[in-house]
Amino acid sequence: MNGSSSSRMGLEWVLDFDRIKAINTSIRIDGKYYRYKGIDEVMVPSTSSLTDTNGQPYKYIGYYVGGNGNYNGFMTQRLNTNLTLVTHVPKIRMIFSLRFEGTLLNTRQNLSEYSGGTRSYVLDSQSYYLPSSTQTDIYNGASYVATYPLYYVSREDMETRIPFMEKFLWAAEHDKELYNELSKLVVKSTTGYMFRKQGYSPYFSANLNVSKEIGKYLTVSFFANNFFYSMQKIKNWQTGNEGSLFASSLVTPFNYGISFKLKL
Q: Which end of the chain is less congested by CB atoms within 10 angstroms, N or C?
């Protein structure tokens, strides 16, 4: 079984426009797009915490592709674009810099993938253990999902690997006791939106920097990052809830200060 795999893709751009002489201002637009996808296909046995009705270790061990969680990978995408305006005022020896930063795309999506077949299945209800006969897309964002081990072994015969799905479906029809035992190896999602794409509507911030030369040797600069401390409302795509950028980790918190530069 192969191990982990990942892929990365990125694109950056910079556009510098000619200085606007009338106001002595230069304009720059820059940005970046980045995409990452990672999948883990290392075989992992189920934990030993399961016990039978007598308190003895559970007699079956399931082997899961990429761990015994519902997802074994994720994909992220991010698209940023920025606008910078820099104005020089030689008469008073000052430079004003204003930078607008916009995040147009910021997403993450849990993935359940296996190069050799299917790893997770849609359930018709959270209480079910068998895969749905009518739904197959775990990424529809509105279904509970079950993840099955690829195979299982008995503690009495650790060498014989039994394909889980085939035996589980057979047991559902012919052996209820075995079906109930194998159901303990089924990992079900706790929400119906676990595989719905996580992300936010676009959000923005602005940074200001003002520099003043004093004499031949001293430059004083004042900066204010995210100076209007945006109260913009943004929507979480996964949950549908709205929240404020205020005190969130999505943008740099409001901060300001003064710096001094001395030429010797």
A: C
State pLDDT tens for residues 114-155.
Answer: 998 899 999 999 999 999 999 999 998 789 999 999 999 998
Q: What's the burial of 34, exposed, middle or buried (CB within 10 Å: 0-12/13-18/19+)?
A: middle
Handedness of CA 106, 229, 249, 16 (dihedral sign): positive
- Model pLDDT for residues 2-13, shown as the tens digit of each residue: 578 899 999 999
Pairing of strands 4-16, 94-111: unpaired
Beta strands in the chain (DSSP E): 4-16, 25-40, 43-45, 60-65, 73-89, 94-111, 120-122, 145-147, 151-154, 157-163, 187-188, 198-199, 203-214, 218-225, 233-235, 242-244, 255-262
Phi, psi of 8 (to 5 degrees): -130, 145
